[in-house]
């Protein structure tokens, strides 16, 4: 009598077999060509705004030091503590973006650093009304760094999940070019505004980041509501068309029947008690033939 139970099991589509053993959430929706252009422009503009707001405080540092009476040590501490939050966030930002989706993480963090940058003059004034202004200033800068630290990891997560391997590098490179463009624009226009209207006139331009936030939300909603081709990625990041993905999802979400569980379970206890398996297994292992002699030799050496 066979030791295996072979009940009738419903035939599973090849797509399930191909995906079995990999992440069930690996199938993603690829952007179309027009959507790729829109998202590239979106991330380029967002990165531009991000770096423009990042260099705003260093541009104003000299004027702010005169107004608040900062020493060189104070200026260096306030400017550098931004990267305490920024660098620490990079360690976990990518995992958070992959786990909770970059489309959800990026808008929230954008609102955080945009609000902190927009109200920087008011927050700094409030800090000097307290007994420990330096602590408040450092906290504001660290929180700003934490908020901005999610931008690039979230952007990389979104791009990697919606583009093929041949398009990821090109699109991500264009998006990163916005960092240099934003720094150049903020440096040129910011210096002019400070000379004409003072350093406080620079921060209201952070309202542009809220415009980008609205554009990002609108673009995300339009993509999610549209009908996209569903594909499966292989180990190399290349897209493979999957015709029966809907059936596969139904199979995965459906609770497996008792027959499927029995068919896929391995009866280890019966296998290792079966005489044929033991004889075949031991005969194929060369060192097992001299196992008892080795045990006897060890016993003679140590036990006498």
From TrEMBL:
Write down the membrane topology: Multi-pass membrane protein
Give the molecular function GO annotations.
Answer: transmembrane transporter activity
- Gene Ontology CC annotation, any one: membrane
Q: Which UniProt keywords apply?
A: Membrane, Transmembrane, Transmembrane helix
Q: Which domain of life is it from?
A: Eukaryota
The transmembrane segments are 38-65, 77-96, 108-129, 135-159, 171-193, 199-216, 277-303
Asked whether the keyword Membrane is assigned, the reply is: yes
Q: Which GO terms describe its biological process?
A: ATP transport
**Do you know which InterPro entries this protein is assigned to?**
MFS (IPR011701), MFS_dom (IPR020846), MFS_Na/Anion_cotransporter (IPR050382), MFS_trans_sf (IPR036259)
Major facilitator superfamily (MFS) profile domain residues are: 39-304
The places in or outside the cell where this protein is found are:
Membrane
Q: Which Pfam families match?
A: MFS_1 (PF07690)
Asked if Ribonucleoprotein is a keyword of the record, the answer is no
Give the protein's recorded name: Major facilitator superfamily (MFS) profile domain-containing protein
